[in-house]
């Protein structure tokens, strides 16, 4: 399986292409690295390819906050500038004066 360069970076805010949630990236897998059971649980019509980067997000929608695992093909850059409310953000990231997210060195281990 050939890998490709990730389009998004750690600390970047992204949104899902189909579903109404957004989040900040805290880790990247160069190709699918979750369980086969998880992958097969996705309806075949919308199941992503495995040969692309997958991103771990501190994600949120209108109702709740959670951790999401999302394929690159299903993400778009979120240019809204709106801050995220996920309760784990301050544990993982330092927030810059411009609202940017920079991974804390102790969280990178």
From TrEMBL:
The keyword Membrane does not apply. It comes from the Bacteria. Residues 5-104 form the Hemimethylated DNA-binding domain. GO terms for molecular function: DNA binding. Pfam families: YccV-like. Keywords: Stress response. This is Heat shock protein HspQ. It comes from Salinarimonas soli. The lineage of its organism: Bacteria, Pseudomonadati, Pseudomonadota, Alphaproteobacteria, Hyphomicrobiales. The gene is hspQ.
